[in-house]
Amino acid sequence: MIELIPAIDIIEGQCVRLTKGDYAQKSVYSDTPAEVAAEFERLGMKRLHVVDLDGAKSRHIVNTEVLRSIAERTNLVIDFGGGIKSNEDIEQAFDNGAAMVTIGSIAVKEPETFCRWLKRYGPDRIILGADVRNGMIFINGWREDSTLPLLPFLKDYIQQGVRHVLCTEISRDGMLSGPATALYSDIMAAYPGLNLIASGGVSSAEDILDLERHGIPSVVFGKAYYEGRIDLEKLRKEWDLQNESSPAST
Question: Minimal CA–CA distance to 33: which of 69, 58, 64?
């Protein structure tokens, strides 16, 4: 079964979603992200992707209090990203409840730092963030083109020991237009052992099921849930029935 990872994006302590990463196109869904996280846990989720959008813009972690409140209120395995640029930032993330961190810009700008963190904290605590537009890696809150093509970028870090990659197709993020399934399938064909986390464009439960059919291990979703397009209780019941009827469960 594909791993379901709901997302909470934070601006000024609020749960929000952007369109194509544009801070001017912001929808606010809750003033209490910890309550949103608790609801995800009640619905059976085990993981949570938290993005500090203020941090991504400021280039240092900002919303540590929100991270801590989610960690204190739930037992969710939290991966946290946005603004992690220094040793202090990554330590703050872990100290305030993150089990994993997503690192993108530093992997482009300071590969030696990224590799040092990968070695120090281990490949199961470091997720390589690959934000993509037209096949190229973007950084710093999706505002800067790195001029690096995606697949060679991934190859270099997989050779360094990376196991987890969060790949976001920027042009689809927040658009509810469907995920970039062909892109993710190409990545999995090139690196079949990778724990690839697909992100961007999910509009329905069918999109998630289609990613599963294509062998994508994990998916991040946000806006589709907040807009009422995904019923997590119904989705989990359908999967429970499928598992009960599968040969492996008999």
Answer: 69
Catalytic residue among 79, 89, 131, 173: 131
Q: CA 67, 71, 77, 83: dihedral to nearest 10 degrees?
A: 10
124 is catalytic: no
Q: Is 173 among the residues known to form the active site?
A: no
- pLDDT tens-digit map of 119-174: 999 999 999 999 998 889 988 666 666 789 999 999 999 999 999 999 999 888 87
